[in-house]
Design brief:
Helix content: 40-55%
CATH topology: Rossmann fold
CATH class: Alpha Beta
Number of domains: 1
Distance between the termini: 40 Å
Number of helices: 6
Order of helices and strands: HEHEHHEHEHE
Largest sheet: 5 strands, parallel
Radius of gyration: 18 Å
Number of strands: 5
CATH architecture: 3-Layer(aba) Sandwich
Shape: elongated
Strand order of the largest sheet: 3-2-1-4-5
Length: about 160
Amino acid sequence: MEPVQELKDYHVNEIHLHRVLVAIDVDDFTSSDQAFDFACTVVKKSNATLGIVTVVESKDINVFESLSPASMDDKRLEASHDLLTYVKKAKEFGVENVKPILTEGTPNKAILEEVIPDFKPDLVVVGSETKKVLGKTIGSQAEGIIEKSPVSVIVAR
């Protein structure tokens, strides 16, 4: 069949989103807020489930903090609190089904190897790094997620 004929015969197929995953970086609110706004808007319009993931990275702590197991517990507690705040904000916006996801490791590896296979999203939304911070932020890892994700990824700026 000729390419022109293929286009003429083509009909747009509606895409139904059931699960959307948004990656939140508590160290870079500016990149996260754009991704969060986008994901909430898409999920609200499609009545999908919103997964909100944040990754606690152990390499972000300094040598002195690493000597105290309480430091990692503090980071987990802070990340959990921030994650629940995002859940509250999504629900206030009108998103009905929200699942918080807290994990640890390198952001793109944790998201690609653990979160995506477990949550099974139809779409992943990430922000783009807006400022340089220590460690591997989700914004700085967006390229790896885009390149290796088995599902569609949108970068919100």
